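Researcher: Good morning. I'm working through a list of sequences from a screen, and I'd like to move beyond sequence-only analysis. For each chain I'm collecting a predicted structure so we can compare shapes side by side. This is the next one on the list. No need for commentary yet; just the structure.
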Amino acid sequence: MLEKKIAVVILNWNGQKLLEQFLPSIIQYSKEAIVYVADNASTDDSILFVKTNFPTVNIIENKANYGYAKGYNQALKFVEEEIYALVNSDIEVTENWLQPIFDTFNNEPKTAIIQPKILDFKNKEYFEYAGAAGGFIDKYGYPFCRGRIFDTVEKDHGQYNDNREIFWASGACFFIRKEVFRTLNGFDADFFAHQEEIDLCWRAFNKNYVTKYNSKSVVYHVGGATLEQGNPKKTFLNFRNSLLMLVKNLPANKIISVLLLRMVLDGLAGFQFILKGKFRHFFAILNAHYSFYCLFLTNYKKRELHQYKRYYNLKSIVYKYYVNNDEVFE
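Model: Good morning. Structure tokens for this chain:
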């Protein structure tokens, strides 16, 4: 038994329809946990819906829409269970999804963060873009997953049915020990949303914490329920936050060389958007770089004393994917 040591915390912003669809599965299969809805000042009837239909769910009301990072930081100040399960509002959980996670935490004291297997709600035989079977990062700071590299997503035929160390866990369904979350001061609020979980896992790695993937816990993710994949704001956040993360976490002898090459690669990505007629995405990259320059010094000061050199997959995922046409994890 889990003895109510897990807090399932769902961050919500104007997501009443998602709560109507997915909260019942969480209630049904999380009887051993305390369930919270952390609301980012929604203007719809989300709170009224939860209070009326699920009176056992605890509600935490943030004063504004703080985004994913600060939204969770604010809400988790009021959550005292030993393990946080941070779950997107568009996640469908499955029976016994919590027990394998709890067992791993219980048996492995050094494991601080865990991700379950994340499959696509709309096509349940395939992995889902945002997390799949656990995340890694390449030598230039590009994140990728086992089961998803750039836009190529693999079918799940058991190839990642394991329990292994990974570099980052997806924020779509993210388990972390309370004491670790608080030791790391939570997510970086400068990120607002997107890649803040990668930054947190990188900072955890620099403090010798372990992040793992557990395939025995399975969830299904809709994806893009807050920002669709083709939204220019998503492009802006991903490009900017990736650069901020590098400034904060790269070993000192890698910062200049990696950032310079990233500028070139980001320029090529922008040129691709122009060729495809996606001018809003091109300008999103320009805005991302401008915002990055404005935030550079602030985030450079956040660096830890020790940044480990073994921080990523030493290959270039861009070269592997676009030049070698290699679309699966090795």
